[in-house]
Amino acid sequence: MYSFKNDYSEGAHPRLLAALGACNFEQAEGYGLDRYTQAAVKLLKQLVENETVQIHLLSGGTQTNLTALAAFLRPHEAAVAAQSGHILVHETGAIEATGHKVLSVPSIDGKVSPAAVEAMVLSHGDEHMVKPRLLYLSQPTEIGTLYSALELQELKNLCERLDLYLYVDGARLGSALCAPGNDVDLPELCRLADAFYIGGTKNGALLGEALVIVKEELKKDFRYQMKQKGALLAKGQVMGVQFQELFRDGLYFELARRANALAARLRQAIAEAGYSLLAPTVTNQVFPVLPNQLIAKLEEKFSFYVWEAVDESHSAIRLVTSWATEEAAVEAFAIALKGNAGR
Description:
Radius of gyration: 20 Å
Shape: globular
Strand content: 15-25%
């Protein structure tokens, strides 16, 4: 049984484990003040081409989102997200638990439009409702699609006009940055977003996300917020070592390209077998629409999530590849798909 459920089933890339082992008995300053974290922060500032940003390492995506949004929003303010947005659907109400409502807007292929966001904001016109204050996006989206530079610029313009912060969830940002046709690099994302994070957990690290705070007014006392939310880890060097290793020579991007290439092979196999996709993805998530009988047959050898029902006899499943996905497993899935096509 081979798993295509997610991109964090495996541990960490061997280079990261070796780096952690090499400094295991070295005494380090706590709470992210160690030399490895400082070196990683320096590398990331160079990559985003902005020395004025604040960068904090947190352990996971949900923790990063709830800590950031709790810090950025006043008690009466809310976040706006796509109807498929991670903070709305898959974080067990973490944002609401901090006291901030998440407002849902319709999306197409996982992406929100300026018109939909503006309609939501304008519908909350007085103090009897929560005040929309932050637009939450993810790059790539929850279903593996990408915002283009033009789309992000249009949303940025809208946020400036409506006085919204623009926050980008980058749990799979490596996959987005390395996807075919992507025209948004780290410096561009840093220019457009008020805050975003660079995900490590889903791209070769044991754990860790690098939150980049761009807008000046969002930086104040953020470490206080981290401490209060349990996000200021005593052994912060565990993340610092990993991020330094991921970014010192481009390993992060190499791992993301590999995951994308394996997902592209799955898409090829799906097309050759005559099946369609739920959305036109170019990242490491693939959502084929398959007959339910075929899904049951594939589940005998592979594990994956059944994403949503499409009609009475077909459903979309989610396949996710990672830096560690075995090429042989991808080929085995392709063979199984072809061998059972039409059944």
